[in-house]
Automatic annotation (TrEMBL):
Domain called HTH cro/C1-type: residue spans: 6-60
Taxonomic lineage: Bacteria, Bacillati, Actinomycetota, Actinomycetes, Streptosporangiales
InterPro entries from the UniProt entry: Cro/C1-type_HTH (IPR001387), Lambda_DNA-bd_dom_sf (IPR010982)
SMART domains for this protein: HTH_XRE
The protein, known as: Helix-turn-helix domain-containing protein
Superkingdom classification of source: Bacteria
């Protein structure tokens, strides 16, 4: 069967078979066979095509890598583990978002500590002005999911109150062009903080508040599937979330 993912990725980038072949220094007929006959290129060509098209290699050729190869690459995506969110150096959050050139994403219930940081808010605004897409997902304070999380953490209604506090602190940022806010009604197993291909993932542990739960620092690597799993989860929550009305 034809490789429709590769064909679609070419169209999305406005590339032709000839231009892709030229950039890879291969025969156009070779690229055509990759598409029409779903031939799998050599690894170096797969990596070059994925980089040129801005997608992951495993998206274009899901069966190209063995389970052992995907596992090895995924293991390499783990940069470090912090035992608690409070163990993450304060400036690490700013450095993370400062690296973003295309996407910043935040998926939390409240993430109050971010909204309280004027430097990070300034980074969000500056990145949005520079054309970076900034998306912030907060838990709907009136949802049963937020109420349940408050009970799980032993803080009760304080969870919803923190979300409302964050909204107040984000008042100016919510008026910034390029920054999108939505409410979600999702049971979160992790909070996700994204800057392009890097993530800080704050795990959720029953009976433990966010600041005392572990954080994983991840960086996407070609062939790995760990970061992709979290990014796909973020997109699913975003699709089902509700835009937050302005003040």
């Amino acid at each position: 069967m034809p490789n429709e993912r590769l064909r679609a990725a070419l169209l999305e980038q406005g590339l032709t078979i000839a231009t892709l072949a030229e950039s890879l220094d291969v025969d156009p007929k070779t690229v055509e066979r990759w598409i029409t006959k779903d031939r799998t290129p050599y690894r170096r060509h797969r990596y070059a095509v994925a980089s040129r098209l801005g997608v992951d290699e495993t998206f274009l050729w899901p069966d190209a890598l063995s389970n052992e190869q995907v596992t090895a690459a995924s293991s390499s995506e783990l940069v470090t583990i912090y035992p608690h969110r409070t163990s993450v150096p304060r400036d690490a959050w700013g450095r993370l978002f400062a690296t973003a050139k295309e996407e910043i994403g935040v998926l939390v219930y409240s993430g109050l500590f971010l909204s309280e940081d004027s430097g990070i808010q300034r980074t969000f605004a500056e990145k949005a002005e520079a054309g970076v897409r900034v998306r912030i997902l907060l838990g709907d304070p009136d949802s049963p999911q937020v109420a349940e999380r408050g009970d799980d953490e032993g803080v009760g209604d304080a969870q919803a109150a923190k979300i409302r506090n964050a909204l107040v602190l984000y008042k100016n940022l919510r008026r910034q062009d390029g920054v999108e806010f939505r409410f979600h009604r999702t049971v979160l197993y992790n909070s996700i903080y994204r800057a392009d291909d890097q993530l800080l993932v704050n795990t959720h542990v029953y009976g433990v508040t966010g600041p005392h739960a572990p954080v994983w620092h991840l960086r996407r690597i070609a062939g790995g599937d760990l970061v992709n799993t979290y990014l796909e989860s973020f997109e699913r929550v975003w699709e089902g979330a509700t835009p937050i009305a302005g003040d």
